[in-house]
């Protein structure tokens, strides 16, 4: 790969800005000062430094975010803050997008990547990737609800959902539950509870496939997936 393309791809500026970096002798390749932006480098074998900082080439980016409420799962929006707006400029440079969506007021696990193949694998209905949610419910959640969810429920638009695994954590006028579903229809968890006469007042996604939310991440924080986490997600393929 050309040196200027590598550095530009990795967020060190435009081709023009990279040219200035090279002219100022700020770039080294294998211990030698780079003289031409057109020189080719082996992204696997060559060591490239910019101002002493090692450049690690990556084609894809894989991030785990603890999505905060009030932020929408989109790449851009004219009115609301998006999950992309939260990212630092270098992460934004990779042009990641959210894998699926969480409602504006929903918190929790959100994967962001620019890997379209992995995104398809995680969202394809044929792959049956489960999503686990924690929710606070206004109303008494009963074993009858557990059975209804297990069979699938009919939403207000007539859609009959795939089975969901409902676990009651506490039951009362305000109940707490966990729900695992394979689908991700618009407002699905809220609509499933509405179908049994109850209201979701708080919703948080805890897991998607093999990936569990890192509880050390504060709301709005994110980090790169570890190699083990990424491998576990890809094995679903």
TrEMBL record:
Domain of life: Bacteria
CDD domains according to UniProt: PseudoU_synth_RsuA, S4
Domain RNA-binding S4: 1-61
Keywords: Isomerase, RNA-binding
Keyword Isomerase in record: yes
EC number(s) on file: 5.4.99.-
Family designation: Belongs to the pseudouridine synthase RsuA family.
Protein name in UniProt: Pseudouridine synthase
Annotated organism of origin: Paenisporosarcina macmurdoensis
Native organism taxonomy: Bacteria, Bacillati, Bacillota, Bacilli, Bacillales
